[in-house]
Amino acid sequence: MGQIQVLDQITIDKIAAGEVIERPASVVKELVENAIDAGATAIVTEIQEGGISLIRISDNGCGIEREDIPNAFLRHSTSKIRSVDDLVHIGSLGFRGEALSSIAAVAQVELRTKTKKDTFGSSYRIEGGKEISFSECGVPDGTTFLVHQLFYNTPARRKFLKTPMTEASHVSDLLVRLALSHPEISFRFDNNGQTRMHTSGNGRLKDVIYHIYGRDVANHLLKVDTQKNGMKVTGYLGEPIITRGNRNFENYFINGRYIKNSVISKAIEDAYKDFSMQHKYPFVVLHFTMPGETIDVNVHPTKMELRFSNQQEVYQFVYEMVSRVLHGEELIPEATLPEVRMPEAIPSERTEPAKTSETRDLDYFMQKMRERVTSYHNQMSEAEVKSRTEIAKPEAKADRIREAVLYRKQQEQKAVKKPEPDQPVAVEQEQKPELPRQLNFFDEKFLKRESRAEYKIVGQVFDTYWIIELQDKMYIIDQHAAHERVLYEKTLKGMRTREYTSQYISPPLVLSLSMQEAQLLETYLDHFTRIGFEIEPFGTDTYAVRAIPDNLFGITKKELLMEMLDSLSDEIGPNLAPELIDEKIASMSCKAAVKGNSRLSRQEVDTLISELLTLENPYHCPHGRPTIIEMSKRELEKKFKRIV
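Below the sequence we write its predicted structure tokens.
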């Protein structure tokens, strides 16, 4: 008997399905794109258990003719093309004729559909590629697909699916792209009975962006509308201040299709290089319209990739467009004032001028805030009130350095002076070792008497590097890298010993997250809590940050937390050791480090150096850059030919 056998049709269908259907999001993609092609103006997607147990997609499109229903589930059956010549001018999202066949091969599928001209609709059930039933039913115009138990007959495929939450986040991400690509269609997404997204379908792209990404993104958009050589692009570029740590926010669509293309990505990122930091990626939502004969969408079964016949021309068009828009705008970030501590009300007998309605509203608001603060303090112990009152005074980083130096001088002089308002109290360490102060810039490990005379600070160059003389060697210290290491080890130590101090903020920071970002935050919430964050749910995929680590006070903003979540999504997996996750999150404290090109006094750098020398690893910052380099006196003498 020969070795080569012709496979049966069911096996063929299951193999073919593996190329198109990888996970529940693949099913949603194919069915929603079919609904778009059917002219739907409203599409509802519902999933249970991440889409593994149930996917329900309903639309108000044209429906499917009764006699066409069985053929729709056959391989390579399609209404989009008739011959190979049609591939050059494809205007629909689907055209291969593999979607329904592939889905029906690995799931239990029920179709309910009705055209406008028919009185009754049709119900069709197919499981594992085999027809189960076909009958009339009463349904509204349009089409509804119910997909039950995905991969029920291919357990090897099913066990490789992720958790329901992860699979749901993939579905959510897909529907976000589809909503951005078709603002004229209303999209609704329900996960386990809870609505996670609902767009209006009013045709305004900016409204969709606002609904999905929030006000902070929608308020920093640059409009795009240009064309050249038959290519047209409309949409929005994000201002550089809303760049992110990965490419998930690069959204571009060609002829209504969301795609990934290295040529377009490179052109966009190259144009942003002069405006963003390294390893930062822009936010864009761009709609391209291009002649069908210049692109090949028949590259991959999922139709997520395409090729251009004129790649260099496309690159140049995109690069020039993005560069022109960015250079044409005055991209000066808007300054934000620091929070001002509200003074206590002081009674006065002098006559006040008549108050406007705005002034009365402000007075009322301030009074309510004082009442809330008083009520909150009454619920805490006296020690806790005292501690949090002390650390609640917002100070700039430079002020904290100067206060640290002042405190050290007071210790060296062994003199306790009466403090001025808002100044730290100088108290001997052995008298009150736990006294809370604003001296949180360093770890309060000051220079030891016996080692003070061993090195000499020569001076600073380029407002960044400090030259130190120690015995017969010269050291050059990078103040930014050194301070990063100091803050990193302090934060990491606090996570391990649970010794940290939180700072409450009012009003709290409110984070609007995608499902994937919300899942990351929930997964690693304990690690954030262990360094002093207090984060709690604040609605659907929204979280309120009510307290932050004291060493991050003044710099913690939404952008910093979103950047942290981006880095977690890129590098952290479920099997990573907890201590490595701690190290990753502790590295966020580096954002509070004093920057290069910032002038420090000799006393300030003296404090920094003495702190650096007490660390376990003073030689590198958390990112691997050296904090200090050395050159011996002998090497210098050799350079100047004093010795041979």
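The longest helix spans residues 357-378.
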